[in-house]
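ugh ok fine here u go
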Amino acid sequence: MSFKKLLGKFLVWRIRHLSNRNFVILLGGITGIVGGFAAVLLKSAVHFIQEFLLDLNVSFAYIFFPVIGILITALLANYLLKEKLGHGITSILYYISKKSSIISRTKMYSRMLTSGLTVGFGGSVGLEAPIVVTGSAIGSNIGRLMHLNYKQRTLMIGCGAAAAISGIFNSPVAGVIFSVEVILTEVTVGAFIPLLIASVLGSMVSMLLLGEDVLFSFDLTDSFVATDFPFFLLLGALCGLVSYYFSNTTLFAERLISRVKQPVLKAILGGLGLGVLILLLNPLYGEGYNTIKLILNGQAGEVFNNSQFLSEFNQPWTIVGFAFLVLLLKPIATGLTIGAGGNGGIFAPSLFIGGITGFLFAQVNNLLDLGRTLSVSNYTLVGMCGVMSGVLHAPLTAIFLIAEITSGYTLFLPLMLVSAVAFSTNSYFQKHSFYTAKLIESGDLIRYDKDRQVLSLMYISKLIEKDLLTIHPEKTLHDLVSLVKKSKRNIFPVVNESHELQGIITLDDIREIMFDPESQKNVIVQSLMHRPPETVSSTDNMQDVMAKFEKTGAWNLPVIDNDQFVGIVSKSRIFNTYRTKLKRQHKE
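structure:
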């Protein structure tokens, strides 16, 4: 028996024995398990590549490793996978908004393969975004296979994203909140159950297969002191400014290297630029979590000792200067990695930059001896939360992620304070997050506006009415009356030999003379037609089309593509389609 027949029998059995709610919960659990396995596989693959390269022990090899990784990734993406990599979570939001939550099957493995090579060979990006894309693609395709509707497929995407974050950090609460805060912005209470199950199962798979070997974890050693409140307030503002710097500098570096159009040359140039930066500042290699772990364990000097050129200058203030350079250049390294054709996300770099910011804040205070010694580990962790909150515009995700990876809620109050202040500071300069800014500006992502959301699901090309009878401008009224007898419409486009629109005639224009024999004989169409108040194109978005209807007060507008008359679009058909889609959304 073929797979399609088996699937068909299963779906029939499901309809008889399982409610939609329970079926979605079951699929959420399956998505969580598969997403957890994907996170484990990616983490293990990157760890294997990094250990292999480290064992080679080749002097100055850091300058070449990123070139190899980015070049292989670019070749795979351009010539084998044939897909544009870019920012993964941005693409997921686009698929939800404009592609009915249908994600291609290749994304269930392509981002794992390309990000594993990029990060494994030292690309200065993170694994989180690629694994979120992988988990989301798994959820979307499970939804498609099981014939789920748009809202249910979207929920499966959220389940995949939650399982990915949960599996890679062993942080189930942060996984759920990330999914709600970044992926699913209009989630209902009923949707939380599949998300919770997916996130928990993703974390369980990770724990069973990796044990304590998660991407990043730390046990708190210092307690929170309430008198540090003013310092955390200042750190929050600083993190907001740093997150603004990070976002803009990353995009600048990405655009700069993207000017090179030839993929191979771009990968080589970008990889070499990254390699030089890593050679000078070794913490820029890979995600940077090892550097943060050393700082948290009070071994910041060890980071400095690993430098090829500066280990002999290991002094407190020199370490501060070194860390400041790392903070300044990490966004450039990240932008070069992505812009050159590598694959990865800005999730880990934002955490890394935040950790460096918190370390610098506490270390400078302690070296200046301003009357209070600050906990370097606490401020490093809280700084991670602050910058992540500012860059992603996801303050709750940042709070719970740091709380979970530290295995407690000792720092919950400062995490809340710094996250809120950093988010507010960044929002003053940047209205939208790193992931959503481009999509919102282009009109490809609409949030919190139900009217615009429904309109964004409608396309002019599917609303064009083509059952109109056209007439040449040099024809007579008699010819037009003959068309009126045949037509079911009261509008007649006037087109020339090249099928270019010359004007419009309606029944109201000829009602008084259409039965006059003398007029039928002598009046030509050109003298009766009038220009339409506005025209539209089949590629226009619905917001622009509706604006033209409101401006002109017209009930019908002609559609013109490449100077050719295609048909008309009417308010009545738009309203009927709008109502149908609105009812469908409420039903789903």
